[in-house]
Design a protein that fits this description.
It is a single chain. The chain has about 260 residues and is an alpha+beta fold. It has a domain of about 170 residues: tt1808, chain A (Alpha-Beta Complex), CATH 3.90.1570. It has 5 helices and 14 strands. Strand 9 and strand 10 form a beta hairpin. The termini are far apart.
Length: about 260
């Protein structure tokens, strides 16, 4: 692998449980083609690398909550750059004979023509002229070695300029943000450049792991709040507005009493 400075990884062996990566439904049809039942088959490492739309991957709560915040923070952080389009858990069909589709946790495109139906499970890249800016992956124990292995090798072939790995499944139990830039020699790790963490230049966003969670900062270096922080900020503003409304009502009542 041409990637430089990536961590050493080993596959986590399942303990007799075949569905450790995920499941794929298989439909049963009668002679007329009508669906009469289904069963589930375990996903393989190849399936994880090159998924189908109906695949369901196993993930821990840390993976799910991290990805949820990542999507929210990217949407907020890139709101002033409408030319950038963000998608999460979408199957990406590169429409190349030498590369099967991938399913990155999150991906940012530019120069994308309008018209893509967000209800679709697969995005055909060439049809929409989409150009990848960055790919984001959140690791899980069973598939971490693929994220740092075969996936990197194939992303080199695709020429994806930036890969950001939120290593939530780090074996030392210390999650970290590992960002990589594509160079002539392969991917090279980008080092943290400030207390804000590592900066992804084309997005002008910063990422770091702090207080047991992913934190993204915007182009001004201001942390982007998570869902709970947004709700709490709303509650505080509403409480102040209610208090002001009550104060004005009382003042109005006093004025009326003096008339």
């Amino acid at each position: 692998m041409s990637t430089q400075m990536t961590p050493e990884v080993e596959a986590k062996k399942p303990d007799g449980y075949p569905f450790h990566i995920g499941t794929r439904p298989v439909l049963h049809r009668d002679s007329a083609g009508t669906v009469v039942g289904h069963h589930y088959e375990p996903l393989t490492e190849w399936d994880y690398l090159h998924p189908q739309e109906e695949d369901r991957f196993m993930s821990a709560d840390l993976h799910s909550t991290t990805l949820h915040y990542l999507r929210q923070a990217l949407t907020i952080g890139l709101r002033h750059q409408p030319e950038l389009k963000t998608y999460t858990e979408l199957r990406i069909d590169w429409q190349r004979s030498d590369m099967e589709p991938h399913g990155p946790d999150a991906i940012v495109f530019e120069e994308m023509r309008p018209g893509f139906d967000r209800a679709e499970g697969t995005l055909p890249v060439e049809d929409f002229g989409a150009k990848v800016v960055a790919v984001f992956e959140v690791t899980s124990p069973a598939t971490r070695h693929i994220d740092f292995g075969d996936k990197f090798d194939e992303f080199i072939v695709l020429g994806i300029p930036y890969i950001v790995v939120v290593d939530a499944a780090a074996p030392n139990k210390k999650p970290a943000i590992l960002a990589f830039k594509l160079m002539k020699s392969g991917y090279r790790m980008m080092l943290d450049s400030s207390k804000l963490g590592v900066r992804i230049p084309p997005l002008d966003l910063w990422l770091r792991w702090e207080s047991d969670r992913l934190i993204m900062a915007d182009h001004l270096g201001k942390d982007i709040p998570d869902e709970l922080e947004l709700v709490e900020a709303y509650d505080e503003q509403k409480a102040r507005a209610d208090a002001l409304a009550l104060e004005l009502a009382e003042l109005k009542a006093k004025l009326n009493d003096t008339k």
